[in-house]
Design a protein that fits this description.
This protein has about 240 residues and is an alpha/beta fold. The protein folds into two domains: about 140 residues, Rossmann fold; about 70 residues, no CATH class. Helix content is about 35%, strand content about 25%. The protein is built from ten helices and ten strands. The strands form two sheets. The chain has a six-stranded mixed β-sheet, sandwiched between helices. A four-stranded antiparallel β-sheet has the order 2-1-4-5, covered by helices on one side. The longest helix is centred in the last third of the chain and has 16 residues. The mean pLDDT is about 95.
Length: about 240
């Protein structure tokens, strides 16, 4: 589904990513973990077309999409759940969800999409007329996830879904991510909470200082003492 080869991204003269390579297969969930400032958000924003690559390539389903703008990537089935949720806070829950299916090619999906969103998140059905900015942090994250699903993604990019949430809500959010993945959607998950990320991922990569330092299955990474001590909070 997604293939990134030797991707380099810079902010001015400052390198943010250097020779980063990874793959996400069809219906696969791959997590990218690492500390703050590692380049994780830069990576996902580059895949979404929000940041230009200085070098390297990004392929989606075999097509080189490195230079495509976000709208073209959206047409090809890429959806982003951004860090911090980025809702339209003055709009209602349902209006936010409808923004997910703004593309002409999927506008006919609106009713079915809403029904599926409310089935996945019953609390949002109850609050469909509520202003999104007045929701709790956990409910806002649910809106952000549901809005992305309204776009009928083939590849779902999720950036730091646990950020700022209480532990019980984090547990619920990751259960939802696992449910979405079980429907066959390919997912690239960016997450600082390594424990939660490894619980749902089939493969994981460790990003630090803009470079990939390790990759493998969760069990393989957890078996490495150096990775456990440096990145998984375990000695």
């Amino acid at each position: 589904m997604l293939s990134i080869e030797r991707l380099c991204v810079s902010y001015g003269d400052a390198a943010a990513l250097t020779d980063v390579s990874l793959e996400v297969g069809d219906a696969e969930l791959v997590a990218v973990i690492g500390p703050n400032g590692a380049g994780k958000t830069t990576l996902v924003n580059s895949v979404a077309g929000l940041l230009p690559a200085r070098a390297g390539t990004i392929h989606l389903a075999g097509e080189n999409v490195t230079l495509l703008p976000p709208r073209e990537l959206a047409e090809r089935g890429v959806a982003l759940i951004p860090e911090g949720r980025r809702l339209f806070n003055a709009m209602t829950v349902e209006e936010n969800l409808e923004m997910g299916c703004y593309r002409k090619s999927i506008r006919g999906w609106r009713e079915e999409g809403l029904a599926r969103a409310y089935e996945l998140f019953p609390i949002l059905a109850q609050r469909r007329r509520q202003i999104a900015g007045t929701l709790s942090g956990g409910q806002q994250q649910m809106v952000a996830i549901a809005r992305a699903l309204m776009a009928r993604p083939r590849l779902l990019l999720i950036d730091e879904p646990s950020l700022g949430l209480a532990p019980i809500i984090v547990k619920q959010v990751f259960e939802i991510i696992a449910t979405i993945h079980a429907t066959g959607v390919s997912i690239l998950l960016i997450e600082q909470n390594a424990t939660r990320a490894l619980e749902v991922a089939q493969r994981a990569c460790v990003l630090d200082c803009g470079s990939m330092v390790a990759s493998g299955s969760p069990k393989e990474l957890e078996a490495r003492g150096d990775i456990k001590a440096a990145y998984l909070g375990q000695g």
